[in-house]
Amino acid sequence: MRRLLKFIPVSLTFFLILGILVGNYYQFSPKVIAIVAIAIVIIFSVVFYVSEQEKITSNIFIFGFFICFFFIGISAVVFKNQINQRSHYTNNNNFSKNENVSSSFWIAKKLKSNANYYKYEAEISAIGTEKAKGRILLLVKINLHKNELEIGSNYNLNAKFNKIPELKNPFGFNYKKYLKNQQIHHQVYTEFSNLIPLNYKSEKTLSSVGKFRETIIKKLAKNGFKNNELAVISALLLGEKTTISDELLQDYSKSGAIHILAVSGLHVGLLLLILNFLFRPLHSFKNGKTYAVIAVVILLWMYALIAGLSASVVRAVTMFTALAIGMQLNRPTNVYNTLVVSMFILLLINPFYLFEIGFQMSYIAVFSIVWIQPKLMELWYPRFWLTKKVWQLLTVSVAAQMGVLPLSLLYFHQFPGLFFVSNLVVIPFLGFVLGLGLLVIVLAMLNFLPFWLGELLRIILQKMNFFIEWVASHEQFVITNISISFAITITSYLIIISFFKWVEVKKYVRFLIFCISVLIFQSILFYEKYNLEVSNELIIFHKNKASLIIGRNGNNIQLMSSDIIIEKRYEIDSYLLGIGVKDIEKLPSMSNSFVFGETKVVVINDANEVGNINSSTILLLQKSPKINLERLLKTYKPKIIIADGSNYKSYSESWEQTCLKNKTPFHSTMQKGAFIFQY
User: How much is the pTM?
Assistant: First the structure.
């Protein structure tokens, strides 16, 4: 590990990541970045000249070099963000934030549809008559008489560009933040009848590959693959997950085998082994190894193209390209170095990869396997070949799970207790399934697929899905609703790293660091528990056509709702999970007034009269009550007016104008999200 820290790319990558984090969380204009870049170049040149002339220590030069890469990280975020570029559609003179916009675009990618809309990722080609670029989320209302839009097809549309909604309720999924990392800043709702087809198709590489991928899926369907079998083979080999049912995804998640459905390092690594085996005969010829490595690298990147160049695929192929070169040329390759170099290259190309869950988990998983798995292997030395292979596979699975566990709990809040069972059974056969699947696809595209071969693969996939479903059915082994904070996640990694560093070399200092890590972990737990017990707050959630109010007094949570039965409690469940509380008391009915601390809340709807309001009162408007708000404000002068999601949008907008006129604070949960009042 000491050698690793001395490896220059490790230090450069560290400062690059630091710069990316700063550039992402603080806004910098391209002009400021350009000025700072010129200043750094001048200062760096002067320092280099002085260090050469005066023969002073090179530490100053090295420090300046690291600062440069810190700044490169900031610059990468600023200039990679398309919204900062002049050609982006938001910077076009014809673009309007509030009115319909005439735009031309092509369909770049199909996304998973919902009950009401087909979803697509579309690339803007023009706004009005001027060229532009940028990505949007296109939602087309489902019409049973219309087929889905084809990838690469071009359309003209006159419609409003809507901003991606902000996070409405605490601890919910931040969809806007997720799409922002994908360079998507607006969504457009439309119907098939509003789309005007253009008489040409996009010849972009990704659109051509997308159409080729669709052709492969159609060929497989024609040869008898359907439903879950077709969905799984499409995910395993083509990276196409939009057709997988929610039930099947849930089963793979509960069984701890969800990583199998995402084309990543596991798949690319197996593919590399298959390709190395196929091209090994070339080693007997002159320059055969060179030709073999060239062929393997080309085929790896061709596969990455077919799989859609997703972040996980690009990441894996970049890493294994370096590994393939080392393997074929018989040059010892430090796996840590390979990991860091691939990470460095990827983050230079796209700094937003850093914020993707897959990117974080994949690198941590591989690092854990390389570092922790050999230590687990030393715990037992099996005598027989079969038990040795089973033990090796088990230690790989355990090492990977140990590495990703804190991050997995932070993001997904569950732990599949039978992960080792599903991995022990599925992973040994995965290489065979991938090899057979590739052969089936090639033969299907050539219209030369024997029925028995396709049927063999289909039966294997069917049995694999059945096994995964059986493992997932043992829900008593799936630990759910686990709530951990970011601070706990970081300290968990401190414990894991310090423990295995102590296992490497049993020194007193390393054991002391491990003990300190455990103490920090416990201190954070105690602090969070104390903070939970002393927190008191009132939350008026945003929920369409309903009212949800939570009053929290430490661990005691009371829920008031306008719904008699709450079937979908996503907002409430996310909140309870976020604060780490499981029990909640549902009050039988929504009161017309209630008190939190020293603050009184009065509810006004069509069912009750106005009264008992003063200047310290929070006034909550529900179900679009027909009241004279201006007269009420002048008479009672409430502290703040709140309109929740049960009101008509037009009413809320009218009330906002009235409050603005009378200088009374107004909060609409439709616009600003949940109202949180701490007392």
Answer: 0.81
Residues whose CB is less than 8 angstroms from the CB of residue 617 and which lie 6 or more positions away in sequence, other chains included = 599, 600, 601, 602, 636, 638, 639
**Residues 424-446, mean pLDDT to the nearest whole number:** 82
CA dist., res. 145 & res. 639, Å (int): 53
Q: Which residues pair with 252 in a beta bridge?
A: none
Q: Which amino acid is at 469?
A: E
Q: What is the pLDDT of residue 325?
A: 66
Residue 320's pLDDT band (cuts 50, 70, 90): confident
State residue 466 phi and psi, 5-degree precision.
Answer: -65, -40
Contact predicate 100/159, CB 8 Å:
yes
Which residue carries 């999601």 as its tokens? 645
Give whole-number Cα distances, 81 to 13, 20, 32, 87, 359, in Å.
Answer: 20, 12, 15, 12, 19
Chain-wide mean pLDDT for the chain? 82
Percent of the chain whose predicted confidence (pLDDT) is above 90: 17
Q: What is the pLDDT of residue 190?
A: 93
Report the first-to-last Cα separation within the chain, whole angstroms. Answer: 50
- Say how far apart CA 529 and CA 523 lie, in whole Å: 10
The pLDDT value recorded for residue 119 is 93
Rounded to whole angstroms, what are the CA distances from 411 to 109, 219, 419, 574?
26, 37, 17, 12
Q: What number of CA atoms fall less than 13 Å from residue 235's CA on the CB side? A: 23
Q: Exposure string (b/e) for 218-243, b if CB count within 10 Å is 16 or more? A: ebbeebebeebbbbbbbbbbbbbbeb
Burial of 30 (0-12, 13-18, 19+ CB in 10 A): middle
CA distance to 96, 365, 668, per residue, from 347 (Å):
33, 18, 39
Return the pLDDT at 18. Answer: 92
Counting DSSP H helices and E strands in the chain, the numbers are 22, 20
Determine which of 166-170, 314-318, 547-551 has the lowest per-residue pLDDT on average.
Answer: 314-318
| Backbone φ and ψ of 508, nearest 5° | -60, -40
pLDDT of 524 above 90:
yes
pLDDT at 564: 52
* Beta strands, E only, 80-145: 100-111, 117-127, 130-131, 135-141
Strand positions, DSSP E, 455-555: 478-479, 536-543, 546-553
- Is 200 or 635 the better-scoring residue by pLDDT? 635
Calpha distance 38→446 (Å, rounded): 56
Alpha carbon distances (Å) from 395 to 166, 257, 402? 43, 16, 10
Token output for 464: 């694999």
pLDDT, tens digit, for every residue of 48-98? Answer: 666 665 555 556 667 777 788 888 889 889 888 888 888 899 998 888 877
Q: What is the b/e burial string over 203-214, where b = at least 16 CB atoms within 10 angstroms of the residue's CB?
A: eeebbebbbebb
Report pLDDT for 387: 85
Mean pLDDT of 400-417: 85
- The tally of CA atoms less than 13 A away on the side-chain side of residue 647 is 29
- Which DSSP letter does residue 565 get? S
Give the model's pLDDT for residue 625: 87
Contact 132, 92 (CB under 8 A): yes
Tokens coding 282: 């070339």
What DSSP designation does 280 have? G
| CA distances for 99 relative to 93, 96, 159, 165, 513, angstroms | 13, 6, 8, 17, 60
Task: Please state, in angstroms and rounded to a whole number, the distance separating the CA atoms of residues 545 and 186.
Answer: 24
